[in-house]
Structure formats: structure tokens, C-alpha cells
Amino acid sequence: MKKLTSSEIRSMFLEFFEEKGHKVEKSASLVPVDDPSLLWINSGVATFKKYFDGSVIPENPRITSSQKSIRTNDIENVGLTARHHTMFEMLGNFSIGDYFKEEAIEWAWEFLTDEKWLALDPEKLYVTVHSDDEEAREIWEEKIGLPKEHVLDEDENFWDIGVGPSGPQTEIFYDRGPENNDLPADHPESYPGGENERWLEIWNLVFSQFNHLPDDTYEPLPNKNIDTGMGLERIVSVIQDTPTNFETDLFMPLIRKVEEISGVEYETAGELKQSFKVIADHIRAVTFAIADGALPSNEGRGYVLRRLIRRAVMHGRKLEINKPFLTELVPVVGEIMGDFYPNVITQEAFVIQVIQQEENRFHETLTEGLEHLVEVFEQLTNKGEVQVTGKDAFLLYDTFGFPVELTEEYAQERGFTTDIEGFSKEMEKQRERARAARGDDQSMKAQSGVLSELEVDSEFVGYTDLKVTSRLQAIICEDIFVDEVDGKRKAQLVFETTPFYAEKGGQVGDSGIIRDSDGNLVGRVVDTQVAPAGQNLHFVETVEPLKVGDEYRLEVNILRRMLIERNHTATHLLHQALKDVVGQHVNQAGSLVTADYLRFDFTHLEQVTNEQLEKIENIINEKIWEAHPVETTVTTIDKAREMGAMALFGEKYGDVVRVVSIDDYSIELCGGTHVKNTSDIGLFKITTESGIGAGVRRIVARTSEGAMKWVEDQLEILSQTAQLTKAQTIERVTERVKSLFNELQELRRENESLYARLANEQASNLFDDPETIGGFTIIAEQVEAKDMDQLRQMADKWKANNSSDVLVLALTLDGKVNMLTAMSDKALSSGLKAGDLIKQIAPKIGGGGGGRPEMAQAGGKNPAGIQEALKTAKEWLMNV
């Protein structure tokens, strides 16, 4: 067995499969693109779902990758076991309808055992196969020559995540030797495939040969696939002969840095070793996730990030690190991984900024959590109880980031116990909620044969031509291929050449018309999309019959295309202007380019200020008025990178790409259509800026005709405002509005004074004559007041004057009711509570309420029930 670094193993794997004709795909972002079913990219195959379910046909059916992935379903096991991680790299090779079991098995064996590659000892390798997969067993025993005792049947060796491709799998295990076994030799789990530390699973080969249908039946796939996964961290631990994944070169530099910060030695840390491992694991996941555009928040993937950061901080406290420290580890992640993942270096400053803010915030939250825990202790003391409930422990964990161990530790110091079993039940409820929220969305689609069988060629010529004559190649109507389609039907058409742009990269598809050879209208193109094999698919409402093989005149809606192009080119200018004004950390997180407007989503932690928006607008309009040529260059991807071209969010690029350049200001990879000169855009106007998620902002803007219409709409609003405010001209609207505002403020002050005087007069009259019921006095009245605040002011005066033991006040305003109850010290000492009373009378006004023992309030929608509520209050007092 060779001695190799993690980088060498990763490169060697990709090189091996590249030699076998595979295309090396770059690792995709951890944040899924156009896949709402996934919170994170959680496996190598997750980025290729569109190939496996047949919705897109890859250029090369053989693919290999090293894909960064995140899974947090077993987060509590990180650091406790030798192999659990939140972020890991999955080495994989994939076949989309190309080779199958024999090649997959033979190549896996070759890579693992051949002297040119990893050179593992074949005698240390064991495999499991599905009990019914005789084909795989025969390949291992007959082709590979593996001894029968090294090939074990496993009933559970079947990969199935719901609807979509599924099939048997074979797993490869490495025997780490009996000295590493944590179980007795005769234990039922002491075998390759069992839960033990001796036989380590290093590679899983999935043979996708069945379609799992929605009715829960299976049928053979139209195209059989191969999906394999080998955890880089695991194979590195084998090659580097380490007891766990954490002692490899993927983690030890981080652990050494934590040693430096904490002053604690890892090798002698005992149980605290887990804290080193958790910190090293979590900082990798957090660094990569933020570099890929995820940001901490209270929901979704942002919540996962926040949780990882807080867990790392808490484990730092166990190592006596009581200051923010995680940012010191970010450069170490770059040193370990930056050669293959350069964005963890280029985004380092932004990652540090985000983690620093979050870590500082958590230290503040910890203080709040401790204050809450003190309140819990006080409540327990008052009740004479000695145990922190599972719900309280979970609240501290979920809201304040307190590990249950910390709550337990503080509780023990105060003489309390903690309901760990109750806490575990609350945790399980949370997991069930998460599973319910995910539902069945993780599965792929079942393969559809129609579009995947579309094999005709189609060339897009719409960069230069917007009207062409072309032969009709294929017609799909009601999900079947037909040779002819009647008029007044909906159909999908493919032409030999087309000027219609198919939607991608955020730019919507073209629309237009189809004419026959005599110039007669025969169809309307309402949309254009990309078919699985890349053809431009025209969605058409037919007017007259169309026939495969006939030639037709295709005409794009030119005005609509021009408007789209103006918005698209403006999007490029906006992207660069945002980087210049807001910061280089800004990255595109989605876009939509239509004829009416453009929408641009980008990563940023704060609202873009009005001053920044104004500066961005000015920059873009200056570029428009300077009339810069918009040049498109077709070149290699490597040359494009040398030119400094930015890659757009979610795009996959081949070896040959289009580079759109606007002077030296904006250079982007883009397959969309654009204006010839920035002056064609005319005018650029931002209409809204808003937040759409944690750390993601959205700008909506208009250009050209859309911008002018927006300006006209604003002028109309201004003109109407001038008329309403009686301003002499629209230029004097601001002055007039300020004057009216000042008048309004003065009237409000006068109104407040009058209401206050009225309330005082009412209070004087009300509080003079309380009614005695039983041993208590009560004032229960409907009053004239402007809002709940005045009711509370009247209650304050009642309390100051000690006017009665019980107070009930009600007011009606705009068809709604507000009620207030209050108790004197005498009433409280007798056990009366305002909250109990309000709950009795609130239903009478069609509402509900609650509050403290001394004061409570309620709201309702039934003013007619006020008198009944006041009567009920007196009856309640009589019966207490």
C-alpha cells in the first residue's frame, strides 16, 4: 500500500476514471441549484439527478467527480465515532446508460489494488452483494477472482430513495485487522458489513436498473445507470493508516491549531478529544458552506450553519477557549483544501466576516441563555421542584444553543437534576418535524421515455438571425411522437435550425410565430425550452396543421427579444456595480430576465442603503450613456478564465464558452443574448431592493421601455399627490406635504390632550362609586377611550388611588372590543388573578386574552357582548 496525501488520492481517483473515458466534473456548490428537494448537496449523485431521471442527457455518459457534501442527520455522533462527519467528500464514477456492472466492478478493483494506483492488499478486501444479485456475485468470484468467503450476501444491499432509479448495490470493505475490532470475534455484528471498527466500508457501487414507480412497483429502467461513492476521508484513513479519519492530513492541521489556541494537547486530552474533532469537522463544513453562499439564520440551511457554529463554540468552551476563535481556523481550511477548492481562499475574508459576526452574536446569546436558566432555577425553587424539564432543556438547546450537557452541569451546581429522557423525546419530535417537512422530495423523478428519445439535431442561430426558414424535425403532441398535428392543438416542435432562444441562465425563452411557405400563419410559439438532449423545444399553439419534414418560416417576436436583451445586458452591469459599491463578496444567487423587468438575487448580509442604490444606478446609467460596445467571444473555458470572466450562478460550462464583455468593466461567461451597444439599453432604474432569505437580497429593475413606463407611473402618482395636497406644482409637493404633516402632528397633540382630559374626567366619575360583591369591591364599566394605551393609563390611575379591589374596563372602536382587568394587592393576596378573570369574560366579546395576575387584557369582535362580559365579571367575583 502506497503512502499518499489526501490531495494525491483525490487527483489519482479523477485521473484514473478520466483515463477510462469519464468527464471530470467540478464539485458543485453545497447549496443546491434549482432543486428545492434538497437542503444541501448530500452525495455525489445529488448533482446528477437530472441525468439519472432522464430530464437532461449529458454530453458524456461517463462522469467522475469529487463532490463536497453535507449531512447533519447524525450530528450528535460527530467526534464520538471514527467516521461521522457533517461535511465530507464523495469520490464517484457514474454511467448514464453506458457501462454497467462488469466495468464498474473491474475498475473499482483495479483502482484499489493495482500497483499504479492505490495498491491495497487484495487479501484485505471483502465485498457484500444483494442476495438476489447473482450477476454481481459471479463478476466478483469469476472475473475478479475474489475467494467465495470474501463475497457475502446482504439482504439490505438495495439502493432505493423512493420514486425514480433504484437497484442492488455491492459494497467494498477493507479489513483493518483484528486489533482494530471493537467487538468479540463471535459477536453477530463482527463481519464485513456489520457495525464494527475492523471491516471499514470504503466504496459503494449502485447498479440502477429499476424504475421505482409512483404505485410502488418496479420496472426495468429504459437506461441502466451506475452510481458509485467512496468517502475520501475513509480511504485516506486507510492509506495513511490512522485510527480514525481525524488523524489524517484532512483534519490534523486544524486540530494542531486548536491545540495552539487552547493550550490543550490532543493526544493527552482523553474525553476532550471529541471537542477537537467536532471543532475541526464543523469549521470545515461552515467554511465551505459560507464560501458557497449559505449564511446563518433561524431556518433551513441557515439554521444548520448556526447550529454548527454554536456547537463548535461550545466545544471550544470545554477546552477553556472562552473567546471567539473560529475565524483563526478558516485560513487553515484553505491551506488544506484550497488547491482543489480555490473558493475557500478567494472567499476567505467574507467567510471570516460572517463567522466573526455569528460567533460574537452567540457569545451574547449565551449570556441570555444563562439568564433564562437562572429564571428556570428560580421557578423550580418556588414550586419546590428539583428537576429541569426536558422541554426547558430543549428550549435552551434549540433557542440559545445550550448543549444539554451544559444545562445538566449548571443544574448540578445548583442542586438540580435534568430530565435527559424528556430532552431526548423533544429532540426526536424535532427530527420528526424535519422529516415531515422534507417529505418525499428527496427522490428523483421516474424516467420518461418520450423526451429522452428525442434524437434529432437542432441548431440555434438566434444570436444573429431572428427570422429563418427551417425544416420541422419532430412533433410531440399529448406526450407521443406524431408525424402531423392538426390546427388548434398544443404541441412541442423541434426544427432543424431555429432563431428561438430556449430558456436558460435566467433568460426566458423566446416567443413568436410560424408561417408556411406561402406566408400564412400556422402556429404561435408561446415559449421555448431546452429538451433533455439540448434541442430547442418550441411550445406551440397551432393555427393550421403542421407536418414533419415540411419547411416553415420561424419569426421571433423582435420587440420582445430586444427588451429581454436590454434587461439581460443590464443584469451584467448590475452584477459588477454591486461588487464595486457593496463589496467583492457579492455573488449572484439567481436571476430572471424578462421583457418587462430584470430580477437579480445576490448574497449580502445587510440591506443595501439608498445611497448605495443611487450610486449603483448612476454607474450603470453612465455605462449606458458612454455607449460601450458589447462584444461576444467564443473561446475555451481556460482562455475565458485568463480573461477574468465571471461564471454565472448555476451554469454548467463546456470546453467552449461564450464570453460577454462590456468594455473592461464587465466580463462574464454567458450563453444568453445581448444588445450590441450599452446605449441600446436606454435607461436603467432600480424599483425595489428587498431581502428574500438569510443573507440573500433581491433587486428588481427595469430598462428602456419598462423604465420609462415606471417613471411615467411615478410622475402620475406625484401629479395626483399635488392635486390632493393642493400643491401649485409637482416641484412643490414635498414642501406641501411637510406643511400638512406638521399640521397633522399639531392636531394629534391636541387630540391626545383632549382624550387624556376626557379619560381623567371619566376616571374621576368611574372610580367614585365602586360596587361591593362579597368581600371585594369592583368597578366594571364600558368607557370612551381612543385605544388600549388609554385603558392602561386609566388602570394606572385606579391603582394609584386604590379605587377598588377589582377593575374591569371595556371600549369599542371600529367594530372591535378591547377589555382590561386588574387586581389590587388585597385581591392578589386572596388568590384572585386578572388572567383568570379575563379568560372567563373574553368569550362574551367573541375573543380571547391573557396576562399577568395583576393585569390582563383581551380583544374581541362582538361589541354587543360587552354588557354580558361585565355582568359575567361580577358573577365570577361573587363565586370566587
Keyword list:
aminoacyl-trna synthetase; nine-stranded mixed sheet; six-stranded antiparallel beta barrel; tRNA-binding; 880 residues; metal-binding; transferase activity; 35 strands; 24 helices; BirA Bifunctional Protein, domain 2; alpha+beta; Elongation Factor Tu (Ef-tu), domain 3
What can you see in these coordinates?
- This protein is an alpha+beta fold.
- The chain has five domains: 6-243, BirA Bifunctional Protein, domain 2, CATH 3.30.930; 251-372, no CATH class; 449-556, Elongation Factor Tu (Ef-tu), domain 3; 566-712, Threonyl-tRNA Synthetase, Chain A, domain 2, CATH 3.30.980.10; 766-879, Diaminopimelate Epimerase, Chain A, domain 1, CATH 3.10.310.
- It has 24 helices and 35 strands.
- Helix 2 links the parallel strand 1 (23-25) and strand 2 (62-70).
- Helix 3 (101-113) packs across helix 4 (134-144).
- The longest helix has 36 residues, at 348-383.
- It is globular, with a radius of gyration of 35 Å.
- It comes from Atopostipes suicloacalis DSM 15692.
- This is Alanine--tRNA ligase.
- InterPro entries: aa-tRNA-synth_II/BPL/LPL, Ala-tRNA-lgiase_IIc, Ala-tRNA-ligase_IIc_anticod-bd, Ala-tRNA-synth_IIc_core, Ala-tRNA-synth_IIc_N, Ala-tRNA_ligase, Ala_tRNA_ligase_euk/bac, DHHA1_dom.
Summarize the structure.
By secondary structure, the protein is an alpha+beta fold. The protein has 5 domains: 6-243, Bira Bifunctional Protein, Domain 2 (BirA Bifunctional Protein, domain 2, 2-Layer Sandwich), CATH 3.30.930.10; 251-372, no CATH class; 449-556, Elongation Factor Tu (Ef-tu), domain 3, CATH 2.40.30.130; 566-712, Threonyl-trna Synthetase, Chain A, domain 2 (Threonyl-tRNA Synthetase, Chain A, domain 2); 766-879, Diaminopimelate Epimerase, Chain A, domain 1 (Roll).
